[in-house]
Amino acid sequence: MKTLLVGVGGMTNGGKSTLSKSLHQQIPNSCIIAQDSYFKDDSVVPEDNNGFKQYDMLGALDMDTMMSDIDSWRKDPERFMRQRDLNPELTTATDTDVFVLIVEGFLIFNYRPLNELFDRRYFMEIPYDVCKRRRSVRVYKPPDPSGYFDGHVWPMYLKNRQEMDITVSDIVILDGLKPKEELLAAVCHDVCEEIERLREKD
Q1: Percent of the chain scored above 90 by pLDDT?
Q2: Which residues pair with 102 in a beta bridge?
Q3: Which residues are catalytic?
Q4: Do residues 169 and 112 touch, judged by C-beta distance below 8 A?
């Protein structure tokens, strides 16, 4: 069997989760690992001088556990999916089968050991005003305190984005304001072409 790792990154509320889920539905033998599932307990996330929890930093995430799960998939994606009941229709894999792992999250390209694993990279972006509006109507646990977006979320996005732009190459920037169907079609076409290339290899 062969494997393909696809990274879907982007700013908060940019549409990366929606795109990842839709892509998963279109791609056979695929599964998703979401970075948001690896936040550390609120009690150990530090606060800045304004009392804002520093969630938008790699230190707020248990990247060791996330990398361990990704390594488990890389070693045996078929077993990984069976153990988690991610694809109950899965039959015994053949040499030409390609398994696809979609990793989505807001800092997946800022963590070098993870970024180096990706075969395809996509980054969803939307303007400040749209991002702020979407964030304001979303329910978080714990909820965002007053001023959190402008005082922490957006400044950290700009900092993390600058770091990504400097250190990461071969990344496709996606306009999150485009229709979801259009974005899905473009990414799905790209990923499917790579799957076919892998199948024909060797």
Answers
A1: 78
A2: 6, 32
A3: 36
A4: no
